[in-house]
Write a structure and sequence with these properties.
Strand content: under 5%
Number of strands: 0
Distance between the termini: 23 Å
Order of helices and strands: HHH
């Protein structure tokens, strides 16, 4: 398990290189800021995408 934060997507990348698989389950549940939280989630998702995993492990 690697803990990171959507406020700092680079914290997610730190764990991607050592992972065999990535499951993105993060979401800020402050629904008074729903649109902003969706954007934050969108920005964090590329950090855990398959190409990013391959790049982090030197396969891409």
């Amino acid at each position: 398990m690697h803990r990171g934060t959507l406020d700092a997507p680079e914290s997610l990348l730190a764990g991607v290189g050592n992972a065999d698989a990535v499951i993105h389950t993060a979401f800020d549940h402050d629904f008074s800021r729903f649109a902003a939280n969706c954007e934050k989630d969108r920005r964090g998702d590329p950090a855990t995408g398959p190409r990013r995993c391959e790049a982090a492990r030197g396969r891409w």
